[in-house]
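Co-fold these.
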Amino acid sequence: MKLDLILRIGVKFLLPFVLLFALYVQFHGELGPGGGFQAGVITAGMVILYAIVFGTEAAKRIAPQRMVESMVPLGVLIYAGTGVAGLLLGKNFLDYSVLAHDAPHGRELGIFLVEVGVLITVSGTMTALFYAFSERGR
Amino acid sequence: MQHVQTFIGHYNYFITIFLMVAGLYIVIARGNMIKKLVGLALFQTSVYLLYIEPGKIIGGTAPILDPAFKVYSNPLPHVLILTAIVVGVATLALGLAIVARIHEAYGTIEEDEIFAREAQE
Amino acid sequence: MVLLTLLAAITIGVVRTRNLFGVIVLAGIYSFLMASVLIVLDAVDVAMTEAAVGAGVSTVLLLATLHLTKSMEYPRPRKAYLPLFVAICTGAAIVWGTYSLPPFGTPDNVIHRHVVPRYLADSVKDTMVPNVVTSVLADYRGYDTLGETTVIFTAGIGVLLLLKGRRRRRTDQPGERSAP
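Predicted complex below.
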């Protein structure tokens, strides 16, 4: 039990910083290295670490299985929706320049939205994969 | 002398191709399925190296625009390889799911034993 | 470079090791070394993704499968000369192909022309995003990224289809499965 205790307390300290780092990587993907994929994988890694140390039941309380499984198509929907929004406003598919008052701001908003979509899909998929693999073994 | 100079200049490519050959050898020659998938992952990462190495400019910097730097390494291979890495992990996940189901169906993940069992039926 | 030689040594270790747990740990070390090599090559986005994906998710999934299949070692491999010969021939062919590549790191390479100077010059003007990799990935080549996201989605759906539901005992009748 002693070794278990060190791991539990350490992980409890560490997890909020991991989540903060994942959000930092996501939102600063435009100014430095980063972007949707890295942030999604780091978020999923945080949930997996929590599940490894505290058990899958505890992890399913903070990331319920139905929510995780519905995050998987939601991100693709956001991405395609941003593309179709460009279509509905009169220009080509995935043309972001019509989303705001002028072209550069529109494209920046479009990039932001698609990165959010990618984050949701990637983190949902990795967590759902981990849940599926660990469910099978019991 | 010309060959030695070419060799030094191309040492990176040689190591990358050695990694590729090793990954290919693991996929073809080993019978355990999990090891085959690990070999496939090694092969894929060596291909990423092969794509990114010609893009580097000695004296350049990472392709994030900043007024203090003038020369940047080529960002186009980075974009393509970013996609490739994520597709690679998706393939690995599917492959591992299939390996788990094969183990449930046959009781083993050795290729030779599965062939023998199929040949008996 | 020293890092690349270390990578080659780790790969030889992966080929020769027979304990599967050791193979997975060595693959994680390989991923970290690959991320370091990528940073030296100025590919910071790629290095972050490779480290997170290769040493994170990939290792976790391999360990989960190892737990499911529960086979630790595998028996003596048969002598395999033909695959070794095929692999070495393929390697020799590729080495012969890379002879005509320009030396490492020169700025007047062919791939630095055509479309990349336009991306580097216009990225801040068109999109106000300094990270050229993100702007190319999400804006100039956004269609490819939509395809990639769909691939991740498909892989997730595929694995969920394969692995959800109750685990059947092998002595059951093949046919009906219990509902997931």
